[in-house]
Design a protein that fits this description.
By secondary structure, the chain is of the alpha+beta class. It is built from five helices and nine strands, in the order αββαβββαβααβββ.
Length: 274
């Protein structure tokens, strides 16, 4: 069957029109799909933000759902979580050893100046004095904050016959579930003595200072502490490195397995490391 040239041209034109219509149809569908995908992505991002805010909000609520009032600690820009609930502190039997020089701060860099020279060191910075309640309940900690306090060295060592003390942490909203398995720190000292004795001329305003190397400043602090008959204990509010970590409050105590009593108890806000 033969077609004339005009007929072939007409068929070609119809074919092109059909192809153009199909392209327009599926092109419009593609644009609609892209638009819907963008909307879905925005909704998912908004939902993720809402869920994150809700998780943090729930984490800083008390067991009864009452929001803990957060306020600034005097002398610093960080915030305090308040005191842990009575159903937590009532489970801590204080050992009766007085806690002194209670301080909350961070481990970080500071600078000191000698003439025109400026140098940097690492030490216990952003220090704020802390108050103890109920004999041994220390201030609550934000993530990455450090609690430091001192006790009578002879009395403390008399309580420990050999690995008697251990840190125990439970979830504040479910203490009956037992100690959390992702918290494995057992030492009573996170800070070194060189961290405590900052270099003189420091930008932290710490006047109890020394000059020289880290080693010489550490020796100076050790000598000062021993002259006062004190032993320094420090705890870091560590981040949770588990993949399923979430922001939550933990209640911890430094527990003596032999006596069943604790040297200190406190609450801190645990946050994911990632």
């Amino acid at each position: 069957m033969k077609f004339s040239k005009p007929a072939i041209a007409a068929l070609f034109a119809v074919s092109m029109l059909s192809s153009g219509a199909a392209h327009a149809q599926f092109g419009g569908l593609g644009n609609a799909i892209k638009k819907e995908a963008k909307k879905t992505k925005r909704d998912a991002e908004r939902q993720a933000v809402d869920e994150a805010e809700k998780a943090i909000d729930n984490a800083i609520r008390g067991k009864k759902g009452k929001r803990v009032k957060i306020g600034k600690i005097s002398g610093g820009g960080s915030v305090a979580l308040g005191t842990p609930s009575a159903n937590l502190t009532s489970q801590t039997q204080c050992a009766g050893l007085a806690l002194s020089n209670v301080t909350v701060g961070n481990l970080g860099d500071y600078t000191f100046q000698q003439g025109f020279s400026k140098e940097k060191r690492t030490g216990f910075i952003n220090r704020k004095p802390g108050k103890v309640s109920g004999s041994c309940i220390a201030p609550s900690l934000q993530p990455q904050e450090i609690l430091y306090f001192e006790v009578d060295e002879k009395k403390y060592k008399a309580m420990d016959k050999g690995n008697d003390f251990t840190w125990q942490c439970v979830k504040s909203d479910d203490p009956g579930a037992g100690t959390v398995d992702y918290w494995t720190w057992h030492s009573d000292q996170y800070l070194g003595d060189s961290h405590m004795k900052l270099h003189c001329g420091n930008d932290q305003g710490v006047s109890d200072c020394a000059t020289g190397s880290n080693s010489s400043r550490a020796s100076a602090y050790t000598a000062d502490r021993k002259n006062r008959g004190k032993y320094g204990i420090s705890f870091l509010a560590r981040l949770n490195e588990h993949s399923d970590a979430r922001t939550e409050k933990l209640y911890c105590q430094y527990y003596n397995k032999r006596t069943g009593k604790s040297l200190v108890g406190f609450e801190y806000l645990s946050a994911p490391a990632r």
